[in-house]
Amino acid sequence: MAEAKSSQCNQPLQRYASEGRDNMNWKILKKRTYLNLFSAIILMVGLGSAALIYQRAGNDPYGALGYEVVDGTMYPIMPESSKLYRHNLEVYGGKFNVIMDDFRRWFVGLWHGKSLALIIACTTIVISFGFFYTANYLTQPLKSDVHNENNPVGTS
User: Is 102 found in the same domain as 124?
Assistant: First the structure.
C-alpha cells in the first residue's frame, strides 16, 4: 500500500519534470534555430555587401592632388610623395610627425575602395561565426539537465 501511494505521489513530479524537460528542449531548440538563422542572415548580407562594394570600387587613391600622364598612362600625384611636403612635416613636427602622417594616410585608406570590401567581408565572417558558435555550443543543455532513470528530475 505504501509503495502504491509513493508511486502515485511521484507520478505528478515525473510528469512535471518531463514537461519541464520538453519545454527546456524546445526553448533551447528555438534559441539555437534563431541564432543559426541570424548567423546565416549576417553572413549573406555582409558578404553580399562586400561583393557589391568590391565590384563597384575603383582603385582611385584617396587624397590625390592631381594626375600626370607618362607614356599614355595616368599616375596620381600624391601630396606625401613630394619632397617639399615631407620636409615641411619634418620641420614642424620632426620625424615622428612624418611617421604619424604616413600612419594616418594608411589608416584612412583602409576605409575606401576594395580594402573596405575586404574589411567588411572579414568582419562579417568573424561575427557570423560568433553567432554560429554560440548557437551550437553554448546553448546545449548542461549535464545536470540530462534526465535518465537514475536522475529523473535532472538535478545532480
Answer: no
Is 156 part of a structural domain of the chain? no
Give strand pairing partners of 70. 73
Length of the chain, please? 156
Distance (Å, whole) CA 31 – CA 121: 26
Give the helix/strand (H/E) hosting 123. helix 113-133
What CA–CA distance (Å, rounded) separates 41 from 34? 10
- Domains contained in the chain, number: 2
Distance, in Å, from the CA atom of 57 to the CA atom of 53, rounded to the nearest integer, reads: 6
CA distance 122 to 111: 14
Query: Can you say whether the dihedral through the CA atoms of 4, 9, 15, 20 is positive or negative?
Result: negative
pTM higher than 0.90 for the full model? no
* 79, HSE (Cβ side, Cα atoms, 13 Å): 11
What is the extent of the structural domain holding 133? 18-57+120-148
* Positions in the chain short of pLDDT 50: 13, 15-17
CB atoms within 10 A of CB 114: 15
For residues 103 and 96, give the distance between their C-alpha atoms in angstroms, rounded to a whole number.
Answer: 10
